[in-house]
């Protein structure tokens, strides 16, 4: 039973934070006890019932400081509201009830915290060995302020050519001599490369209680530094661009929040009383350009209010540090007037990472007026939201907000600025962070680092996806002179259109560069061809053959980009091409086989025109080095027949086939499971073995496994059945009439407990009757009984593949046979995945459709 889905956030969060309080020193323990007592006495907490989700989303922007919990499915938000706040919300259809249940649970847990703190003061030795600190206790995936700084400083020490740890200012406590922290920026770039490098600047944790923000930004730093030299995109970004990260923008407040207090502002004792847990200024209402621009409507002049803007613009040292740093890295490219646009060729992007509400926001936030560069920022915002699945919109809510961080970057300097609101809670659980927030948002940050050179132009152009090289050229390497096939998909469709739609165009061209970027002076572009012969669709397969004659040994960078019919070049993607004068074959494969060969074994394997019969064995090696035989196969669909053999009675057998597509010595990478029977059968199994269109050409290893009454895995032994290995040679041809296969390898997060779900499209150019199609799906999910999976024909007809079966089992990786009859094949097919229960999450990794 999935109990945690239904526990109130306050109970889950606060109870897990109790251990954090045992580590404060005696002075801060006493102070924390006083703050907990104050929080127990706070009784202005209400259920705010909203009329619709759109209003609720806008309220989450305007009243972000008052939000405590969201219960969108139940129609209400839990908010800490003054009478003035309620008067502002009532005209929008909100009604209010005192949240007695929330306050009762909160006070019980705060009492436990207070008792534990008092015990630790009375008997510190007895409490000191309870827990060893590793992250924020109860939330070990989130580094503390000190741990964040230690990781960042360690990057600079271990990688001095790539990272620099820069002191840019002081927190309020530090300016008063009360301890506190320096404010640092982690600057990431390859110092050994020169040229004009555009800058992506990200700040996080400006609101202390927003746990997910700094860890996400730090994870991005790890991706860049650890990926340098190993990941082509991380490498070229670090060579050509700069990424600057202010990881802890409000370190004093963050330390308060690490004890479990719902702390938002900085800790300035001059506002609302030196010992109040409502003291401080809201740093994200204190920036200069739009400070109090709405005359009290977009922030508060009350010192104890969550959105108190401070006594004057940029009065707080933390904001002074951020503004000064922004002015030091970007020139001023926008006029002083509200309607003065920055030039289209402006470089740089500013991201302010917040939580929560699952939003991507851009200026203006203090007026309904569209910003002078608003159309271009909307395009980039919808591109960001394509990756993280959030709602993209201008940052105006029910009411305006003023003095926010985009004041310095966009308002003053003209650099496009965005706010990401991560996840659904301030104190987000680690499972959600690791499985959803981090994998959804890292690609958005990576995309920002790619387009920072032309953020007002490049996001309108096509993206390069599924970039691959043949013959293991990107992994094990090829000898110089080897022709290497480059394949990719160029698509102009990757926008989130959940809040309006973005204009898209046909692909007009694609090109690649070797060891030089497109913007380098004198760079040589080499054209790529449309895979189907002409550029006439919004998504196109592109291909070309790279001549490696005379290339030096080592890694070479291949930059790829495409252009749409409007003449806009999109973001660059890159891949390494490895030249090795003495390439080594893949490493030895893991052992596998049955433990008993006397009752059942693989009797025959047929792939296309190839066929081999064999006798009883636990494991059979039919690779080229043993038999001299090579199994021919092609990209796309290959007809396959698998025959079991029995000594007596027949049994139900499961089948799977893997191909080491990237030739790295294993069968564990995405897409390498190329056939599954999808169920048990005692008779011959037939179907389509699908090899991705971007699979490396040439020889590699294929593994066939048959197992009694359970799905086999590529490694290890099982009681009954057999495993056979073959050498397969993948070619480009159509396999002598083999079926047509179309696929989408883009990963989509599956929204939790969402009746709309997620859809993944495939454009099919084949015409004529569809007949019977094979649909292969690869879904990772921790509770497949939550899921409904449907295939949608271009005319809208739905074909159900999976309907909440399988209970608590993980994942759906199967091939389904669907009769579509005389319906035409051409058009956009879709796979729709819906999760209709809470808590468990997953992703649609890839799917394909094969026409017989």
What keyword list fits this structure?
Aminopeptidase; globular; eight-stranded mixed β-sheet; Immunoglobulin-like; seven-stranded mixed β-sheet; alpha+beta; disordered N terminus; 5 domains; single chain; 21% helix; 852 residues
Short description:
This protein has 852 residues and is an alpha+beta fold. It is built from 16 helices and 40 strands.
Helix-strand layout with pairing:
Elements: H1 9-17, H2 26-40, E1 45-49, H3 53-62, E2 67-71, E3 76-80, H4 83-89, E4 95-98, H5 100-122, H6 124-127, H7 145-158, E5 163-170, H8 172-175, E6 182-188, E7 199-204, H9 213-227, H10 232-240, E8 242-246, H11 251-257, H12 317-329, E9 349-355, E10 359-362, H13 374-388, E11 391-394, H14 406-412, E12 417-422, H15 430-451, E13 463-469, E14 484-491, E15 507-514, E16 526-527, E17 529-530, E18 539-546, E19 554-564, E20 573-579, E21 592-596, E22 600-607, E23 610-613, E24 619-622, H16 624-627, E25 631-634, E26 636-646, E27 653-659, E28 673-676, E29 685-691, E30 698-708, E31 716-731, E32 740-744, E33 748-750, E34 754-764, E35 769-781, E36 787-792, E37 798-803, E38 812-824, E39 827-835, E40 842-851
Parallel strand pairs: 7-8, 7-9, 9-12, 10-11, 21-31, 24-31, 25-31
Antiparallel strand pairs: 1-3, 1-4, 2-3, 5-6, 6-8, 10-12, 13-14, 14-18, 15-16, 15-19, 17-18, 19-20, 22-23, 22-26, 26-29, 27-28, 27-30, 30-31, 32-40, 33-40, 34-39, 35-38, 35-40, 36-37, 36-39
Report on the structure:
The protein has 852 residues and is of the alpha+beta class. The protein has 16 helices and 40 strands. The protein has an eight-stranded mixed sheet, with helices on both faces. Strands 21, 24, 25, 27, 28, 30 and 31 form a seven-stranded mixed sheet that branches. The radius of gyration is 29 Å and the shape is globular. 49% of the residues are buried. The protein is 21% helix and 32% strand. The protein has five domains: 3-127, no CATH class; 145-262 and 314-349 and 372-438, Aminopeptidase (3-Layer(aba) Sandwich); 462-579, Immunoglobulins (Immunoglobulin-like, Sandwich); 592-731, Immunoglobulin-like, CATH 2.60.40.770; 740-851, Jelly Rolls, CATH 2.60.120.
């Amino acid at each position: 039973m999935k109990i945690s889905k239904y526990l109130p956030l306050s109970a889950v969060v606060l109870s897990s934070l109790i251990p954090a309080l045992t580590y404060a020193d005696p002075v801060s323990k006493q102070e924390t006890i006083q703050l907990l007592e104050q929080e127990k006495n706070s009784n202005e907490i209400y259920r705010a019932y909203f009329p619709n989700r759109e209003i609720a989303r806008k309220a989450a922007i305007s009243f972000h400081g008052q939000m405590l919990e969201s219960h969108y499915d139940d129609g209400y938000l839990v908010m800490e509201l003054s009478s003035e706040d309620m008067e502002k919300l009532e005209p929008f259809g909100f009604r209010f009830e005192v949240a007695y249940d929330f306050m009762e649970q909160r006070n019980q847990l705060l009492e436990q915290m207070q008792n534990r703190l008092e015990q630790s003061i009375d008997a510190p030795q007895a409490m000191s060995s309870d827990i060893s600190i590793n992250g924020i206790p109860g939330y070990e995936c989130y580094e503390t302020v000190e741990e964040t700084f230690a990781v960042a400083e360690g990057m600079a020490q271990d990688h001095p050519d790539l990272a620099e740890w820069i002191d840019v200012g002081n927190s309020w406590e530090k300016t008063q001599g009360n301890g506190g922290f320096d404010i640092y920026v982690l600057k990431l770039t390859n110092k050994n490369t020169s040229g004009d490098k555009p800058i992506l600047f990200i700040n996080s944790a400006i609101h202390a209680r927003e746990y997910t923000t700094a860890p996400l930004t730090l994870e991005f730093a790890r991706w860049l530094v650890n990926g340098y030299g190993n990941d082509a995109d991380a490498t070229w970004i670090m060579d050509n661009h700069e990424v600057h990260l202010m990881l802890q923008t409000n370190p004093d407040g963050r330390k308060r929040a690490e004890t479990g207090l719902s702390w938002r502002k900085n800790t300035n004792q001059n506002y609302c009383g030196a010992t109040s847990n409502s003291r401080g200024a809201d740093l994200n209402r204190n920036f200069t350009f739009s400070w109090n621009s709405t005359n009290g409507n977009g922030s508060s002049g009350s010192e104890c209010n969550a959105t108190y803007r401070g006594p004057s613009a940029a009065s707080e040292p933390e904001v002074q540090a951020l503004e000064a740093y922004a002015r030091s890295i970007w020139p001023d490219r926008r006029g002083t007037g509200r309607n003065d646009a920055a030039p289209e060729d402006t470089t740089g992007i500013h991201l302010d990472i917040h939580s929560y509400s699952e939003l991507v926001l851009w200026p203006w936030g203090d007026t309904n007026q569209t910003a002078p560069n608003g159309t271009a920022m909307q395009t980039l915002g919808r591109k960001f939201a394509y990756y993280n699945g959030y709602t993209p919109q201008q940052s105006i809510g029910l009411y305006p907000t003023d003095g926010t961080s985009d004041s310095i970057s966009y308002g003053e300097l003209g650099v496009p600025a965005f706010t990401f609101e991560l996840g659904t809670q301030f104190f987000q659980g680690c499972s959600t962070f690791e499985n959803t927030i981090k994998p959804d948002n890292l690609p958005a940050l990576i995309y920002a680092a790619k387009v920072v050179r032309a953020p007002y132009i490049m996001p309108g152009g096509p993206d390069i996806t599924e970039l691959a090289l043949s013959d293991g050229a990107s992994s094990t390497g090829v000898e110089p002179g080897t022709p290497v096939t480059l394949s990719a998909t160029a698509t102009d469709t990757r926008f989130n259109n959940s809040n309006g739609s973005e204009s898209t165009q046909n692909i007009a061209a694609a090109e690649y560069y070797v060891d030089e970027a497109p913007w380098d002076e004198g760079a040589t572009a080499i054209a790529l061809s449309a895979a189907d012969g002409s550029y006439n669709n919004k998504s196109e397969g592109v291909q070309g053959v790279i001549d490696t004659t005379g290339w030096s040994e080592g890694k070479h960078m291949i930059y790829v980009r495409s252009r749409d019919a409007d003449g806009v070049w999109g973001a660059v993607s890159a891949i390494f091409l490895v030249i090795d004068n003495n390439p080594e074959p893949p490493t030895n494969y893991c052992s596998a086989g049955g433990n008993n060969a006397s009752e059942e074994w693989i009797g025959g394997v047929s792939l296309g025109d190839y066929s081999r019969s064999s006798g009883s064995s636990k494991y059979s090696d039919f690779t080229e080095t043993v038999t001299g035989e090579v199994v021919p196969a092609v990209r796309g669909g290959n007809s396959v027949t698998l025959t079991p053999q029995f000594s007596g009675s027949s049994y139900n057998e499961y089948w799977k086939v893997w191909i080491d597509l990237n030739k790295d010595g294993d069968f564990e990478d995405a897409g390498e499971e190329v056939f599954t029977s999808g169920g048990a059968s005692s008779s011959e199994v037939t179907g389509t073995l699908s090899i991705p269109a971007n699979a490396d050409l040439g020889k590699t290893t294929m593994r066939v496994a048959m197992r009694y009454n359970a799905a086999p895995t590529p490694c290890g032994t099982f009681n009954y059945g057999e495993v056979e290995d073959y050498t397969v040679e993948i070619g480009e041809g159509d396999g002598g009439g083999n079926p047509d296969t179309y696929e989408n390898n883009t990963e989509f997060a599956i929204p939790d407990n969402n009746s709309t779900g997620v859809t993944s499209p495939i454009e099919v150019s084949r015409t004529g009757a569809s007949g019977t199609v094979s649909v292969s799906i690869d879904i990772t999910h921790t509770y497949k009984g939550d899921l409904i999976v449907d295939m949608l024909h271009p005319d809208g007809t739905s074909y159900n593949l999976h309907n909440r079966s399988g209970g608590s089992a993980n994942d759906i990786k199967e091939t389904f046979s669907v009769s579509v009859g005389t319906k035409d094949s051409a058009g956009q097919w879709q796979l729709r995945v819906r999760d209709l229960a809470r808590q468990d999450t997953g992703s649609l990794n890839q799917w394909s459709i094969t026409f017989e």
